[in-house]
Structure prediction request, 303 residues.
Amino acid sequence: MKPHWTGVFPACTTQLKKDQSLDLPATAQHFEVLIQSGVSGLIVCGSLGENQTLDPDEKRAVVRCALEAARGRVPVLSGVAESSTRAAVRYVRDVAQLGAAGVMLMPPMSYKGDPRESMNYLRTVARDGGLPIMIYNNPLSYANDITPTLFAELADEPRFVAIKESSGDPRRITEVRNAVGNRYALFTGVDDLLLEAAILGIDGWVAGTGIAFPAENQCLWDLTRAGRWDEARALYRWFQPLLKLDTHVHFIQYIKLCEQETGLGVEWVRAPRLPIAGDERKAVLKIIRGAITQRPKLPKRRQ
Prediction:
């Protein structure tokens, strides 16, 4: 049952109104822009989608919105960031009924488990949830590290089909390949390691900042697929200050500000997050506006 998930699967924001209520029409409009740019899938309700601050019915509404916008053109995955194993299973079952193609499974947000507990959580959600799973490994943010050795142990569960590797260590790409070969589709989840990861050999990219620059984001990915490394390096050097915005504790605010500056969304976030202000705002706007001013002419696709 392994789905062929490859290519750019952007981690999408959830668009909000100033009063912090959902803006589903604006969210759907951005989904359409991303699909038109050539992405291979959509991931909603991940960290960038502010999963942890959405009410249960709001999460399901965003998934339904994505499915209606996609209309079967690309698979839709949902992030899973529940606090208990029982809630995670219930959520996966619900989005399966809605028509989601799979889920991106994050560790429980409120508890730092040991490896035995983490493995039990992952296996239980896979067994009882009923959907293909991309395991999201981000020990820097979520304090649970699924190591290459643990991925090898999990390889006997057929519903684990992909890995989002976000440890921040590009050596992990080769270590995972050496441990499990091509058992999983391997995605990078760290924007400013994309080129390094692509050289080492990945199947996809869960993109962050690029949702505000979808044409450039897709072009960069396509250049790596075609082995056009000189052109990829040139585009990557322009992109790098923007991509680095995805690696900060305020990454949601930064990327939503990018969307606002490029006309693809607004910066409103759900409290306790607040839009950035003061010197921090000035510094981030300088990066964004500088990149827009110097936006490169994209190389043509070769036939």
Summary: The radius of gyration is 18 Å. The chain is about 45% helix and 10% strand. The mean pLDDT is 95. The first strand starts at residue 7 and ends at 8.
